[in-house]
Amino acid sequence: MVEADEKNVQAWIKGALLIFSSLLTSFVFAIDNPDSPDFIGEFEVREQVFLKAINNPHNGSKDYLTAYDDYLKFLDDELNRAYYLVKSRLPIKRQQELKSSQRSWIKFRDEEFKLITNTWVRRDFGSSAGISRGSYRSTIVRNRVLQLLSYVKSY
After folding, report:
1. Nearest Cα to Cα of residue 75 among 16, 136, 15, 3
2. Residue 23 to residues 9, 17, 26, 33, 105: CA-CA distances in angstroms?
3. How far apart are CA 32 and CA 92, in angstroms?
4. For the segment 55-112, what is each residue's pLDDT rounded down to a tens digit?
5. Which of 67, 46, 47 is closest to 56 using CA atoms?
6. What is the pTM of this model?
7. Which of 29, 85, 117, 126 lies 20 to 30 A from 14 at CA?
């Protein structure tokens, strides 16, 4: 009978220690500097005007194409902004790594854009082909912008 109580106490202590250590670890990961700028949030605010133009229910095919072209230009500017922001926070050696990574990403983007262009063609997808191309292209660039802005948050 005493052995059963000891096993229960030991199990309870182990469980309590496990819970305590997991809570302690999660507090460490939750620490964030409240005074640091929210670059991702600011980006998302800036992009709203472009997303509204894309999602306008009165758009015709040409309106969608124009809205996506404008959005891609905006994203390209944001991509450059995010790249230089990350670069400015890195030591020289890490800047070279970023530069190499960005060059590789640009090659990937260009190849992906070719695939998108050759896949979503008007012959197979009608007037929605241009909309699909705009959506897929902008998603690729937007994801890279967010990735770079996430790096900024780490430095």
Report:
1. 136
2. 21, 10, 5, 20, 38
3. 26
4. 999 999 899 999 999 999 999 999 999 999 999 999 999 999 999 999 999 999 999 9
5. 67
6. 0.77
7. 29
